[in-house]
Amino acid sequence: MRPFARGLRSAVLASTALSMLAFAPAAFAQDAADEGANASGGGEEIVVTARRTEERLETVPVSVSAFSERALDRIQASDTTGLQGAVPNLNVVQGRGSSNATNIYIRGIGQPDALQTFDPAVGVYVDDVYYSRIRGTQLDLLDLERVEVLRGPQGTLYGKNTIGGALKVVTRKPGQTFRGGVSAAYGSYDQFEIKASASGPVSDTLAAGFAVMRAKRDGYVEDAVLDRDYNDKDTVAARGALAFTPSADFRLDVSLDYTRDDASLTVGQPLNSLTYLIGGGTALALPTNPDPKDYDFTGLTTPSLPNSTKLRHWGASAAAAWNVTDDLELKSITAYRRLVTKDYVDIDATELEMGDVFVGVWQKQFSQELQLNYTGERLQAVGGLYYLKEDIASHQEAYADDLIGPLLGNPTFLRTIDDTLTTKSYAAYANASFAVTDALRISAGLRYTDEKKDYWRTTSTFSTSPLLTSVTPYVFARKQSWDDWSPMASIDYRFTDNLMFYARAAKGFKSGGFNGRANSAAESTAYAPEKVWSYEAGFKGSVADIARFSIAVFHNDYKDFQARVSGIDSDPNTGLPVPVLSVLNAGKLQIRGAELELALTPATGLLLDTQIGYLDAEYKEFDDARFPDGSRAFQRPAFAPKWTMRFGAQYEADLGGSGFLTVGGQTRYRSTTALAVDNTYIVGTVGTTTEIEGLFQRGYWLHDARIVWEDEARKFSLGLYGQNLSDKRYKTDGQDFSSIGSIRTVYYGAPRTFTVRAGVKF
User: Fold this and answer.
1) Rounded to whole angstroms, how far apart are CA atoms 611 and 595?
2) Cβ(706)–Cβ(76) below 8 Å
3) Residue ranges per domain, the chain?
4) If you compute the radius of gyration of the chain from its CA atoms, what whole number of angstroms results?
5) pLDDT level of residue 44 (50, 70, 90 thresholds)
6) What is the 3-class SS of 612-633, one letter each residue?
7) pLDDT digits over 676-696, tens only?
8) Which of 368, 617, 688, 753 is deepest in the core (most CB within 10 A)?
9) What is the rounded CA–CA span in Å between residue 103 and residue 96?
């Protein structure tokens, strides 16, 4: 039997077993109102702001998944990476070699590199404030109203860098009703977590609230030689908010947030023997194909490399809403953010000093958005102006004393990089929906973006070999500007109040930029923006209080995608081999797929749900001079598995005066996934069609379960949560730096863990 068939059979059996458990005799009760979108088949109205105005989920002509705080607990998500599997065709994992970055792909479109010159391809928003970097986006889900995941390009309403989609976090706002809560958790690897929040009125016109969190956990990866752990967690987060409502027509929300993360190194596992840069030869023999069934997380890093990654991330925002008339609302969103990271990364994941780096980043951004919303009898419209200014500076050090080799006498090697990047982005947009009839609605939108980037970089090399030492620093400075028009058009038809068909066409783009890894004039290139045209059609609906569903099919034409590739060239002065790290506008992809989200409540207290994504992604062009035919179109696109599936079930038993008991579980599947753009071997300077086996994660299943007790008033709760119950060892990310000592490293997801969580609401 094929592995997929075996896995599918196990998923069906697991889901059936959970369903049988759910039908056990008892009295039933389910808080459908709190279960959230894609979590309840009940008739509760679910409101989202996917189109920058409040709408029922079932009437939005966009592929969007939404999760309330209760639904996030049901899928056992404690941070943004916990959405993995719960949204079709979504890849969201911790970034490679970083405790504070997130690798997000939607429908095969994303950007995994945390280097400050690379822009994300999936926009992350917190209360409609855009986060410019993928660093700082592995957000702990603290006191939230909901999370929304928009699939497909969102360029018209959300702008640049939403070419794959958008992830929106909506925090809970303070109001005139007092509310609060405290929760504490303890689990595997000495996990400890405490969260607290409270909000309520200060006066008739002012409300205030706060939320705080402290989370710690020992590392999954142990270094017996150096007696230290890696891949741990050490986070403090806090948020404060004020809501001022002097009248029924005006509201001002002010918030301030702060996150401190002091984790150890995030360490992967090397895939092959490392080699000297000059003269070849093996520097250290390593297993070439680790046993995927062995969950012995052991790692080694360079002893002199500090076991430290640090993040300080904070921001302030003010959102004002004024009802000019009964039909017209004016909004203003002003935000300022700062991000500081000081990360040490052992890219080669060995005790050798070959791919050891320090990356310090200082980033700040200011944004201002003015928005006008009109809601009439048949016309609904939103338009606005947007401005963003971002300044980034970085200092990088690459330590590689073991890289060069004995032919030059094993010289020391240190390369330093300092760079700055300033981005100014201006945009204007409009989107309107018109109800032709009570059932038929047409929508159209357009956004214009003008962006300017100013980049400066200097590189110096220090070595005991004069052949490698920089006589003068290499300096690169360049300015570039781009502009873009992003249109959208859709049509939807409501057969009944509970069944809608829609079709949508939209364009998205991702900003151009400069190669932040350049070390020579040949590498110092600008690359153009990415663009995608997406065509989508789907059905959304519900059946009484029994079922809620969403079905979508889509076709994406994606061009000028930005590919970071590595190679080797010869130094024109010395003739010595030098690594080349290039960024190419490599060509075109065609991405087609289908998605299903289904939730059933066939009996009171019983919830069955599934999310299934199918993706057919292929390069139509991939221009790379190292390949004999000039194309790498045969390769698998990265982070684009053909299948993503989740099957879940939960049963809530009413224990009368003793409260409620919920038993739930889920099983998640991902088919074969390429973990890096460079995933075939390069021999010398010529590419091959032979896949690098270790840079793929073959199809796998993960199984989770929970049992939670709540008192009769749902004020107190106590739960036991288990994740990755089969202790599956699986890869989540990888990097290929073959041109630098043959470095290829992969990173793994968490092993089996158990957590006990207790909470009280008041």
Assistant:
1) 8
2) yes
3) 47-761
4) 26
5) low
6) EEEEEEEEEEEECCCCCCCECC
7) 999 998 887 788 899 999 999
8) 617
9) 8
Check residue 45 and give its pLDDT.
64
Least confident of 94-103, 568-577, 664-673: 568-577
| Three-class secondary structure of residue 439 per DSSP | coil
Least confident of 52-66, 312-326, 436-450: 52-66
DSSP helix/strand/coil, 82: helix
Instruction: Name the helix (H) or strand (E) containing 508.
Output: strand 499-510
pLDDT at residue 26 in the model: 29
If you average pLDDT over every residue of the chain, what do you get? 89
Cα separation, 126 vs 146, whole angstroms: 11
Q: Which segments of 606-685 are extended strands (E)? A: 606-622, 643-654, 660-670, 673-674, 680-683
Can you tell me the mean pLDDT for 540-561? Answer: 94
Angle at 511 between CA 509 and CA 512, to 5 degrees: 125
CB atoms near residue 494 (< 10 Å) = 20
Q: What are phi and psi of 647, to 5 degrees?
A: -125, 125
Q: Are 569 and 522 in contact (CB under 8 A)?
A: yes
Nearest 10 degrees: Cα torsion 128, 131, 137, 143: -30
pLDDT of residue 285: 64
Give the Cα-Cα-Cα angle 596, 599, 603 (nearest 5 degrees): 155
262: phi then psi, degrees, rounded to nearest 5: -125, 60
Place of tokens 């189109």: 51
Name the region of 359 (left: φ>0; alpha: ψ -120 to 50; beta: rest): beta
For residue 99, is it left (φ>0), alpha (ψ between -120 and 50) or beta? alpha
- Alpha-carbon distance 18 to 707, whole Å? 12
Would you say residue 164 has pLDDT above 90? yes
Question: Is the CB of residue 547 less than 8 Å from the CB of residue 599?
Answer: yes
- Residues 546, 690: Cα–Cα separation, whole Å: 50
Spatial neighbors of 445 by CB under 8 A, at least 6 apart, are 156, 157, 429, 430, 431, 432, 487, 488, 489
Among 410, 411, 286, smallest CA distance to 348 is for: 286
Q: How many CB atoms are located within 10 Å of the residue 583 CB?
A: 22
Picking from 259, 254, 35, the residue whose alpha carbon sits closest to that of residue 146 is 35
Has this prediction a pTM greater than 0.90?
yes
The torsion angles phi and psi of 276, rounded to 5 degrees, stand at: -70, 150
Residues in the chain: 762
81-85, 96-100, 152-156, 308-312: the lowest-pLDDT one: 96-100
Overall fold of domain 47-761: Maltoporin; Chain A (2.40.170)
Mean pLDDT lowest for which of 98-102, 161-165, 189-193, 421-425?
Answer: 98-102
How far does Cα 601 stand from its chain's mean position?
A: 30
Q: Are strands 228-230 and 274-275 parallel, antiparallel or unpaired?
A: unpaired
Q: What are phi and psi of 206, to 5 degrees?
A: -130, 130
Mapped onto helix, strand or coil, the DSSP state of residue 20 is helix
Looking at residue 719, its pLDDT comes to 98
Query: What are the φ/ψ torsions at residue 656 (nearest 5 degrees)?
Result: 70, -130
Question: Across-strand partners of 304?
Answer: none
Whole-angstrom distance, CA of residue 32 vs CA of residue 717: 17
Measured at the CA of 545, the angle between CA 542 and CA 549, to 5 degrees, comes to 25
Please, how many CA atoms are within 13 Å of residue 379, restricted to the half-sphere of its CB? 9
Phi-psi region of 85 (alpha: psi -120 to 50; beta: other; left: phi over 0): left
CA gap 146, 125 in Å, rounded: 12
Are 448 and 484 in contact, with CB atoms under 8 Å apart?
Answer: yes
* β-bridge pairing 165-171 and 122-126: parallel
pLDDT computed for residue 625 by the predictor? 82
